[in-house]
Amino acid sequence: MHLHNIQIRQFRNIRRAEFDLGSRVTLMIGANGQGKTNALNAIATLAMQRYPSGLQDHDVVSWELEPWMELLGKWRFSDGRWLTVRYAVDRREKVRRVKEGPKMPVVGFSPSDLRLLQGGPGYRRDFLDQVCSTLYPRYGRTLQLYERAVAQKNRGLKDNWPFPALETFNQILAEHGSMLWELRSMMLKMMIPEVYRVHQHLAGGHEVTMQLKPGGIAGEVPTSPGDMMKQMRARFDEERSRFMCLVGPHRDDLIIHLNGHLATTSASQGQQRTLGLSVKLATFHLYHQQLNVRPLVLLDDVLSELDPSRRDHLLEIMADGDQQTVITDTEARWYSALQPVVYQVDNGEIRPWRS
Amino acid sequence: MLYPAPIQDLVNELAKLPGVGPKTAQRLAFFLLNRPEGESELLARAIVEARQHIQYCSVCFNFTDQDPCALCRNAGRDNGLIMIVEHPKDVVAMEKTHEFKGRYHVLHGAISPMDGVGPEDLKIRELLTRIKTGAIRELVVATGSSLEGEATALYLSRLIKPLGIKITRIARGLPMGGDLDYTDEVTLLKAFEGRQEFS
Lengths: 355, 199
Description:
The structure holds 2 protein chains of 2 kinds.
Chain A: E1 2-11, E2 14-19, E3 25-29, H1 36-48, H2 57-60, E4 68-76, E5 82-90, E6 96-100, E7 106-109, H3 115-118, H4 121-135, H5 139-158, H6 163-202, E8 208-213, H7 225-234, H8 236-242, E9 253-258, E10 261-262, H9 263-266, H10 269-291, E11 296-300, H11 308-319, E12 325-329, E13 341-346, E14 349-352
Helix pairs in contact in A: 5-6, 6-7, 6-10
Chain B: H1 5-14, H2 22-34, H3 37-53, E1 55-56, E2 63-64, H4 70-73, E3 81-85, H5 88-95, E4 103-106, H6 124-133, E5 138-141, H7 147-160, E6 166-169, H8 185-193
Parallel strand pairs in B: 3-4, 3-5, 5-6
Antiparallel strand pairs in B: 1-2
Helix pairs in contact in B: 1-2
């Protein structure tokens, strides 16, 4: 499945743009702040039929002059069929959203991937959520219900509600929370060997391990609602005095070790970068294996940060396979072997590039 | 503001209605002003009369103009079977089926800490009194399938089970005539879990 004939209207600083993606590699060149990342986000939104994490309507659609946006494209299937895909938001009266066409997983690489190692546990949970909701259709809705139950119980704890009423929220939290834990564990079981394999390839000789640390619990991840209920009851007094839910997937962390040491604190910047890259590449392989499609790959300004051998490795993977890749950079370097389709991004306009 | 004060007051009051934003409130206000005067008087009177004459039924806590309400006075209905719902409109919805012949109990809301609604703000104490004074065979919990509706259902089940009365929850699943591919994953999963053998 390949995405073609993209039309962007009113997506951040891109007022109007029409361009085709190459069936392999597309390169977007431009100085900083011209709209390269906006173009990538528009492509990702169209492919996934939702915003990439971190984006919301008010980031994308301006309130003032033109409170709407529209993205259009066409998927080309391997049997030659074409299917239109559309994602549009109109905020003129109330927010109306139109989603049309198939969904395609996207793996985006960007310098902020480093937050997976340098940032707090929230970034690692976001990553778990992203991958799980791509792999398991019921994950997203379960997470939504779970987070609402957490907010309700937190509020009840703050307002000093009696135990019986809060206990009913425990039961709901246990139902959805244990499901989230089960799916996160299932996903990591497949992901961890992939990360190990990719990391061996990128930086042989180093041992990387990953483990889910369940929120508020010492030891094994509980996967039955009953187990989670027990754990919540055991810490209820503490929850009461700290006014918040202490047990559950909303407090998970992903513990990453490199050569037996905690990678978040003791790995070097370069090692962390390689680890981040390994995790993202493993995600790509996992989507490919599990969903039997080659995800769209978006590389936002990452290659210049990598040392030559890792860069070559990444480019090698991009060249080897049927997936579409879109790369942004400030200049057209390193890429000639990939024979990319090249565009110039300049102040929100996207035009074919002439060297 | 640009409007004369009486119009602005009307807009402000209309904007307090659920689902009505400032723009819709303006449209409604101008609509009312453009209609014959008699019409707005009818509306105003209808609102005042409804407020004056509608009260809670002392048995089921549905809205009524006569206490007890028509449903509670109806001798043909089954006293042993009570359906518990969140809102009066749920009673109307259920009554449209013409199939349920039991009684109702209206809670007037669902447990939601974020909205400041706790069990004691709902007609739960009244329900317990009703259970103790009547011969109840079965309570059907028909609160909504929202998180808060579920929480309320769980709360009631924990409260009432120890009393030794049968308490049931209405099923969750596919709407009739609904296509599988238009149904969200969690609903489908619930429908699958609640599957039944052909009898």
